[in-house]
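forwarding from the other thread:

> can someone predict this with inosine 5'-triphosphate?

sure thing
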Amino acid sequence: MKIAVGSKNPVKIKAVEYTLQEARIQGSFMSIDAPSNVSEMPFSDEETMQGAINRAEYCLKHMEADVAIGLEGGVMETPFGLFLCNWGALAENGKTTLLAGGARIKLPDEIAVNLRAGEELGPLMDIYSRRENVRSKEGAIGIFTNGMVNRDELFIHIMKLLIGQKGDWFK
Ligand SMILES: O=P(O)(O)OP(=O)(O)OP(=O)(O)OC[C@H]1O[C@@H](n2cnc3c(O)ncnc32)[C@H](O)[C@@H]1O
């Protein structure tokens, strides 16, 4: 089985590889910087889901993959504040695309206010945490949980929710 992931972000690639290995799913693995074709900073569950789907579909179209994974991060507005959200899509030719979402956490008001003003979470998190490339490492969730839940764990959870739905892979 040829498996493609639509990102070059190491935290996403590692989460996909790790989960497939854990589930003893054999296959060759490739990655491509697939466009999400949504805003740089998705601002709803729907837009973030669409980004994940678009990335997976791009992989199917542009690579010789049997299975394609799209992972996308975004934020979503609620009556209780702005929350971090993450979504994953697993696509195969001729089959219904599977979707799964990850854990959410409310963003502090000082971050939310800048996001609502049009800034992107990646650079904001680097400034806030005084670290570099947070989006490819612990992620916002890692910063706001003091490392209790990092971005890799979030994507591993999403991957488990996705591949767990592939009953035929476990026979
Ligand atoms: O290389 P790609 O796959 O694009 O990975 P990414 O982390 O840059 O991109 P996402 O599509 O997952 O997220 C969209 C933007 O939201 C930001 N973002 C999302 N989740 C984040 C997180 O946990 N920590 C920091 N920034 C995040 C970041 O600025 C992204 O450019």
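The beta strands are 2-5, 28-31, 67-78, 81-91, 98-101, 105-106. thats all i got for now
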